[in-house]
Amino acid sequence: MNMLDKLFGRSKKKAEAEPAVYFGRYSDNNKPVEKVNRWSDAENLFKEKKYPESLDAFYEYLRDDAIDNVVHERNESSGRFQFYQGSKIVRGNYDNEHLHAEATLAKMPNPNVPVMRRLLEMNFNLYYSRYALEGEKLCMRFDSDVETASPSKLYYGLKELSTKADKQDDLLVQDFSSLQTTDTEHIIEIPAEEKEIKFQWLQKWIGETISYIKTLDPDKFSGGVAYLLLALAYRIDYLIVPEGKILHDLEKIVELYFKKNERQTTEKNRDMIDAFEKLKNRPQQEVFEALYRSRHTFAIVTPQNYKTIADAIYNASQNINWYRDNNYPSIAAQIAEYGIAYCQYSYSLPRPVTDFFHLFMMVNYGEYFNALGFNANYYNPETKQFDADKIADRVKQIINAWKPKYPNLKMKLENIKYDNMVVFNVSFTTEIEYLNIDTNR
User: Fold this and answer.
1) 234, containing H or E segment
2) Contact at 8 Å (CB) between 137 and 119?
3) Which long-range contacts (CB under 8 A, 24 or more apart) does 228-231 make?
4) What is the DSSP string of 97-158?
5) Residue 418: pLDDT above 80?
């Protein structure tokens, strides 16, 4: 029995039990029907000026029962609430007139002009909340009169407060040595072995990708190189799940490519490669500090019409043929990965789509999952053979699990091909492209 078995309490009799390792960003796009109904209740009660009852419904809507992310207590017209967003806790209270919410960012024992200048500048980009200083405590605050605190205003106001606070606390402490971390006791440490595995594979994926890119003509293959680099960023985001400064670095890498300017793709690729090399050279301890587990209440991305998702997969697949036909299978395979990984990174996806994407990643990166303690033997890289039956069984499990909510959900298993990884990736993502996720309301 390996260390992960001991850490997660597995035995040989329970070899199929999956370890408690989590992937990807939190999505609030998968609330059950009863939760969605509570949003409607909150809106109707607010219109009827039943403000305490409206707040009851609103916080029940926010609460994800599976992770216990929201606490709300009310006594007649006054109450208190608390919810988690990554490394931050948002705490608040209200009475029959006012509602107040606050998240602590850091401790500043001594006044610091550069810090205050940074916060003042960032204040101009906020719509609902604001940065504030109370004694030694740097924080973000949101306030509203109860009679104007509609569910929509509360949702977007509290989302801005919590997501900005979750991002800025780590950045401020790392950028200003005078600041001290505070209010992070709720963060869940992950096992040292899991951190070590993630660090090793972060190094491996970046190293292999950059080494391969250096064998390619940077001008002739500028498009293919961009796909390789972006797919790498999305893979790290989903499979390694870094937080804090490392997540910020990844987002900046993606932004280098998509930022609208007159720069050529070759220039953008060069800057992305430089940024990845800096990420690869970050000290192990610095990476370890960005690997932890936490609860969330808001997704940092938003849902999209499924046609947007289907179009992204389709558009990527249109660029595969030349690389496939001219014997560049690794580029072709990762272009297919890019199409669906871009959606997972950029949008809050319906859960079955994420489940299919997760299966796709387990097929492509089974060795990584196996290192973490999963039974991910969908593909044998030595024999280059797929376990088609196992893949089909998992597809059926996903469909059956989500049929009650998505009655038209289906995947044509006969269309999934197993000739090689390129063929599999294209055929599998094409089936994701054609999913029908109309809900049963």
Assistant:
1) helix 222-235
2) no
3) 228/331, 228/334, 229/253, 229/257, 229/269, 229/272, 229/273, 229/276, 230/254, 230/257, 230/338, 230/342, 231/334, 231/335, 231/337, 231/338, 231/341
4) SEEEEEEEEEE-SS--HHHHHHHHHHHTT-SS-EEEEETTEEEEEEEEEGGG--HHHHHHHH
5) yes
Q: Is the dihedral of CA 341, 345, 349, 352 positive or negative?
A: positive
Name the nearest CA neighbour of 356 among 306, 285, 300.
Answer: 306
- Encoded amino acid at 405, one letter: K
For residue 377, what are its two tokens? 């033997």
User: What string of DSSP letters covers 388-418?
Assistant: HHHHHHHHHHHHHHHTTT-TT----GGG---
Structure tokens that stand for 384 in this block? 């280059």
Dump strand ranges (E) for 294-371.
none
pLDDT value, residue 6 = 39
- The Cα–Cα gap between 81 and 101 comes to 9
pTM of the model: 0.89
* H or E element at residue 335: helix 329-346
The span from the CA of 234 to the CA of 250, in Å, is 8
pLDDT confidence band for 379 (50 / 70 / 90): very high
Find all residues with CB under 8 Å of 140, minimum gap 6, and list them.
Answer: 102, 103, 105, 129, 130, 131, 132, 161, 164, 165, 168
Q: Identify which of 211, 430, 237 has the alpha carbon closest to the alpha carbon of residue 335.
A: 430
- Asked if 378 and 366 count as a contact pair (C-beta separation under 8 A), the reply is yes
DSSP 341-356: HHHHHHB---HHHHHH
Collapsing DSSP to helix, strand or coil, 161 comes out as helix
The pLDDT tens digits for 27-41 are 887 788 889 899 999
d(CA 164, CA 103): 10
Inter-helix orientation angle 244-258/265-280, to 10° = 170
* CB environment 381-405: b (16+ within 10 A), e (fewer): eeeeebbeeebeebbeebbeebeeb
* Residues facing 179 on adjacent strands: none
Which 3 state secondary structure label does DSSP give 11?
coil
